[in-house]
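Hey, I'm writing a tutorial for new members on how sequence and structure tokens pair up, and I'd like a real worked example in the thread rather than a made-up one. If someone can provide the structure for the chain below, I'll link this post from the tutorial.
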Amino acid sequence: MIFSVGFNSVYHLSDLPSFVSGSYIVFFDPHCKFLPNISAVNPGKRIDFVSADVLTHYKDQFQPYCVFGCDMKTSYNGTIFRLPLRTVSQATESQLSKQYYSEDDIMQLLDEIHLESSSCMLFLKNMEMINIYDWKPDSNSPDLKHSCSLKSANAGRKQHRDALKRLSGAWTSAWSGISSIPKHLDSFTLHFETKRYAKTAQVEVKLEAFLIVQCLEASTSKIGMMSASVAKRHGVCLLPWAAVAAKVSENNAEV
């Protein structure tokens, strides 16, 4: 199992990240100190939580994953990440990071994510909503604090957002010199609705629209031929793709 630098960023917050997906729960323990029977060669565990019936035997450890429809008894059609925050004492011994985070630090971080949530989704291909919840110890369910959703869902918008994935498949032949790829240039508009839920039951709403322009250069262009050369010599497949965004409107209201 290989993860990119993006996943490795979780170690800024936690020494023991984990996630649930399907019928499995996976733990990563680089220090080899939190989980039993692991080693530097295999510093983690993957457990089939359905067949192992983990919730019955270790309820205190696996109850936190029971959220958003996951019951830790049947296969879960989704993915839940859990990042236990590094404590002050753990930070003094951690070989990953000496930085620790308090609850207030994380709440501030989530507020900052709320402010940037629409920008975070501008160039993503599949994500259409970001919700931020706060689950208090004395509450039976989490409370929605912030949300940001992509509006006006339609097949045309999906066609634009999927362009890179759709067009990149043809580049295998271009890198080998079998065929050429024409230039692809298009533009489209994305509309976002961002909400902040206040304790007074009022909801702050922000509507934004962004114009997106994206381009895949032709394989016969200078940068296209450079891409093919790098692929042939070094086996590194780079696509001559670029995209930019400009905010074209913004409206704020309270409801």
